[in-house]
Write a structure and sequence with these properties.
The chain has 531 residues and is α/β, with parallel strands linked by helices. It has four domains: 2-93 and 282-301, Rossmann fold, CATH 3.40.50; 96-273, NAD(P)-binding Rossmann-like Domain (Rossmann fold), CATH 3.40.50.720; 316-439, 2-Layer Sandwich (60s Ribosomal Protein L30, Chain: A), CATH 3.30.1330; 448-531, Alpha-Beta Plaits (2-Layer Sandwich). It is 36% helix and 24% strand. It contains 20 helices and 22 strands. α1 links the parallel β1 and β2 (22-25). α1 runs parallel beside α13 (282-301), α5 (96-112) crosses α7 and α16 crosses α17. It is elongated and about 110 Å long. Bound molecules: nicotinamide-adenine-dinucleotide and D-malate (MLT). D-malate (MLT) is lined by residues 47-48, 70-72, 95, 278-279. D-malate is lined by residues 47-48, 70-72, 95, 278-279.
């Protein structure tokens, strides 16, 4: 396993990576060199300096995983990585406390003009009244984004005697109450806060969350702390508001361009700034490097990972409970496609019996992989299966019910193309896979690598005719299952055979007058190997 580390990285993380992989440590690599070199590596580890663009990802022909030593993945084209089936992992917990502490440091420095006063005294001045500050006690702090860092900042600010309100559209009022935070509407937060602090990700929907319009709603004299991402605030608009005194001060750790170069915002006296130091403590750097290295190695070894940004998290306990159903779901996806074709608008999976209480997403993905493998080849995996399905216009739905009729567990796959609809159901019987329903046929198919699936009108002699033909063609039958809708009605026969059947033999089967349809089904090896 070869891993490229293209940003500065703590020695602890490097050591851990080197125990398992060949590591090329290139913390100063240029963007051009990165594009040239990345093709040699299965893993790429970055912090925020390296920009993992679509071009880098396209060039990384062998890439299986991109690791981000930190939280924000706005420097990685996650969509492109997903399309290519590359796992993106981050280290979401390692720098929470450091970032929260830095936000509080900025908050207190801002209230008391600490950096400006420090620079003044170093210049030999003794200015006191000029640096008169304000207390934090009893002031209203507006927290935008109450995830890991926002919650920790709120906790610390409460200890400083501040009142806290928060805006986060993805947390419930209940969760906010548990954190001791009053959850309010965005505009209310803007109007009521004496201080505002940002702790949300930068993405297309949060870019310039605060622009001219929002700045105009702020309480006069408000102070702003941004320790999340530069692009969240329109810097030009903020600059004007600071110059006009509508915003009393700003403390910024992050900038839209980093480094910001000559920036009129930073030159203002009422702005204090640090060069993206939020996560720069010894503890946080060691934490994130160790966390991301572990996840990168796990991803390369195909082991369960816990911090994938673009792939489902399959914890060991989840794997233990639903693991045996993953090959069944994959077998069903593959079987369906080979029997009924892949041109579908919608796939609906229903999980019945005790499966209803289990995590469904991994089983759905496994089914999609089995289905899509026949269309797009081995390029489909856990990371991109949903993406590929969506891009092909296939809507995927999941439902569950505790009712499973005669089975303790049952997966039903139903797919539709316009008016046409087919369904199959599968179960685990004492741990063994069975497909127990194909449209209206009740049957007990044992999925095998090679299967001949035929339908015929149920009457004496049919099975013999097919058996004789296959014998003459030197095709060895391993086992057989029969199912029918009613006696002497339509019937289905599944023959497990030892090897792939030549196309001419299949044509001869189809030509038999007793046969109404014949398909040769080849199941992916992964269903039997558990890969
Ligand atoms: P997190 O995922 O735990 O929390 C982010 C929160 O933002 C979530 O609760 C989410 O619901 C909320 N959110 C998403 N969109 C929102 C919106 N439009 N309005 C309001 N809230 C919204 O992440 P975290 O670990 O707390 O980190 C937050 C951000 O801080 C990261 O995305 C990263 O960019 C930044 N960060 C900066 C530094 C630094 O060095 N300055 C260090 C670590 C993290
Ligand atoms: C993060 O998102 O984790 C921080 O911004 C720290 C960093 O970029 O290294």
């Amino acid at each position: 396993m070869k891993v490229l580390v293209s940003d500065s990285f703590s020695p602890e993380g490097l050591e851990q990576l080197k125990e398992q992989a060949e590591v090329d440590y290139r913390p100063e690599i240029t963007p051009e060199e990165l594009i040239k070199q990345v093709k040699l590596f299965e893993g790429l580890v970055v912090r925020s300096r390296s920009k993992v663009t679509a071009e880098v990802i396209e060039a990384g022909k062998k890439l299986k995983v991109i690791g981000r030593a930190g939280v924000g993945v706005d420097n990685i084209d996650v969509e492109k990585a997903t399309e290519k089936g590359i796992i993106v992992v981050n280290a979401p917990h390692g720098n929470t406390i450091s970032a929260a502490e830095h936000a509080v440091a900025l908050l207190t420095s801002l209230a008391r003009n600490v950096p400006q006063a420090s620079s003044s005294i170093k210049r030999g001045e003794w200015e006191r009244s000029k640096y008169t500050g304000v207390e934090l006690n009893h002031k209203m702090l507006g927290v935008i984004g109450v995830g890991r860092i926002g919650s920790e900042v709120a906790r610390r600010a409460r200890a400083l005697g501040m009142k806290i309100i928060a805006y986060d559209p993805y947390i419930t009022r209940n969760h906010a109450e548990k954190l001791g935070i009053e959850s309010v509407a965005f505009e209310d937060l803007l109007r009521q806060s004496d201080f505002i602090t940002f702790h949300l990700p930068l993405n297309p929907s949060t870019y310039h969350l605060i622009g001219e319009k929002e700045l105009a709603m702020l309480k006069p004299g408000v102070r702003i702390v941004n320790c999340a991402r530069g692009g969240l605030i329109d810097e030009d608009a903020l600059c004007t508001a600071l110059q006009e005194g509508r915003v009393e001060g700003a403390a910024l750790d992050v900038f839209e361009q980093e480094p910001p170069g000559s920036c009129r915002l930073i030159e203002l006296d009422n702005v204090i700034a640090t060069p993206h130091l939020g996560a720069l403590t010894r503890e946080a750097q060691a934490n994130v490097a160790l966390q991301v290295s572990e996840q990168v190695i796990r991803a390369l070894k195909g082991e369960p990972i816990v911090s994938a940004v673009n792939a489902p998290v399959l914890l060991p306990e989840t794997r233990a409970s639903i693991g045996p159903f993953l090959p069944l779901a994959r077998a069903m996806g593959s079987f369906y496609l080979q029997l009924f074709g892949g041109s579908v608008d919608e796939i609906e999976l229903t999980y019945s019996g005790h499966l209803a209480s289990m995590p469904l997403a991994p089983m759905t993905l496994s089914c999609l992989i089995g289905f899509l493998q026949h269309i797009v080849g081995d390029g489909v995996n856990w990371v991109n299966a949903s993406y590929i399905a969506k891009n092909r216009g296939v809507a995927v739905r999941e439902t569950s019910t505790t009712e499973a009729k005669n089975y303790s567990n049952l997966i039903t796959m139903r797919a539709r193309t316009g008016e046409e609809e087919h369904h199959i159901s599968g179960t685990l019987l004492n741990g063994d896979m069975r497909i127990v329903r194909v449209d209206d046929y009740r049957i007990e198919i044992v999925p095998a690598r090679y299967m001949l699936v035929t339908t015929h009108n149920d009457r004496p002699g049919v099975v013999g005719k097919i058996g004789t033909l296959l014998g003459n063609e030197n095709v060895n039958i391993a086992s057989m299952q029969l199912g029918r809708k009613e006696a002497r009605g339509e019937a289905m026969m599944v023959l497990q055979v030892d090897e792939e059947m030549p196309a001419e033999t299949l044509s001869k089967v189809k030509e038999l007058d007793v046969i109404t349809s014949a398909n040769f089904v080849i199941m992916p090896k992964s269903i039997f190997s558990g890969d």
